[in-house]
From TrEMBL:
It holds the Pfam family BPD_transp_1. PROSITE patterns: ABC_TM1. It comes from the Bacteria. One of its GO terms (cellular component) is plasma membrane. Its main location: membrane. InterPro entries: CysW_permease (IPR011866), MetI-like (IPR000515), MetI-like_sf (IPR035906), Sulph_transpt2 (IPR005667). The complex is composed of two ATP-binding proteins (CysA), two transmembrane proteins (CysT and CysW) and a solute-binding protein (CysP). Gene3D superfamilies: MetI-like. The lineage of its organism: Bacteria, Pseudomonadati, Pseudomonadota, Betaproteobacteria, Burkholderiales. It comes from Ramlibacter albus. Part of the ABC transporter complex CysAWTP (TC 3.A.1.6.1) involved in sulfate/thiosulfate import. Probably responsible for the translocation of the substrate across the membrane. This is Sulfate transport system permease protein CysW. The gene is cysW.
Length: 297
């Protein structure tokens, strides 16, 4: 047996091991992803497409869809700004309190969304710290759209920062320092050096943040007040319909929410594919030509 064949035998699993692992993965995908999606679609269309369409056209459903999209449209850009700023500060600079800032970024991962919602009720509710002042000035936070937006921002703000921090730390600061030495300003360095280097990580973070913003239930449920047609997002509207035994309408809205999640997944897959193409193209480029040094006498 040659050395090459020995290496192949020692580093390659038996075919039955690969097929077993692939089979287990496919079974899990079938049981926990494809079957639930198929069940949602089947129940949504159980009474025909007309009933499905009427469930989505219903005013309360349309209000929930609109509120979900508005909340995501506000939360994602704000988290985009925070995520870039936090990642840039943590990855590029050393300062007092850096570990504390990193802990704050991870805080929503360790706190239950329901607890986060209760915190907003404690702070902005009628009996909360700022409740009397808000009531006196006729400002509504809790049980209104601002509370929903704040709760969504809280539970989603780690996604972009956590996607960018390891990427920026791996890239280092050499390119930014070189740009500054060559006379670039801070904004020029960011737009022409930092941003192109982190664009794919930024896209992944935005996609994950948007998916969580549209599907958030716990924190939003606490601060929304469940006012139909006003403060119900799509997940909350699905819960209300299901509790009222309107299963077709509930699954119709749920199917739309699942469709948005699938579209998000497709966008993420396309972005990953494009990233891999760029990486492959960069790896295939020939190295820059370096002329030989002149011969010395």
């Amino acid at each position: 047996m040659t050395d090459l064949s020995r290496k192949r035998v020692s580093t390659t699993e038996a075919p039955w091991v690969r097929y077993t692992l692939i089979g287990i993965a496919l079974v899990f995908l079938l049981l926990f992803l494809l079957l639930p999606l198929a069940a949602v679609a089947t129940e949504a269309l159980r009474k025909g497409f007309d009933a499905y369409w009427q469930a989505l056209k219903e005013p309360d459903a349309w209000s929930a869809i609109r509120l979900t999209l508005i909340t995501a449209a506000i939360a994602v850009p704000l988290n985009l700004v925070f995520g870039i700023a936090a990642a840039w500060a943590i990855a590029k600079y050393d300062f007092r309190g850096k570990a504390f800032l990193t802990t704050l970024v991870d805080l929503p991962f360790s706190v239950s969304p329901v607890v986060a919602g209760l915190i907003y009720v404690l702070v902005f509710g009628a009996q909360g710290w700022f409740g009397p002042w808000l009531a006196e000035h006729d400002i509504k936070i809790v049980f209104a759209v601002p509370g929903i937006v704040l709760a969504t921002i809280f539970v989603t703000f780690p996604f972009i920062a956590r996607e960018l921090i390891p990427l920026m730390q791996a890239q280092g600061t050499e390119e930014e320092q070189a740009a500054i030495v060559l006379g670039a300003s801070g904004w020029q360095t960011f737009w022409h050096v930092t941003l192109p280097n982190i664009k794919w990580g930024l896209i992944y973070g935005v996609i994950l943040c948007n998916a969580r913003a549209m599907g958030e239930f716990g924190a939003v449920s606490v601060v929304s007040g469940h006012i139909r047609g006003q403060t119900n997002t799509m997940p909350l509207h699905v819960e209300i319909l299901y509790n009222e035994y309107q299963s077709v309408a509930a699954f119709a809205v749920a199917s739309l929410l699942a469709l948005l999640a699938l579209v998000t997944l497709v966008i993420k897959s396309v972005a990953e594919w494009q990233h891999e193409r760029e990486m492959a193209a960069a790896a295939a480029m020939p190295p820059e030509y370096v002329p030989p040094k002149a011969a010395t006498s």
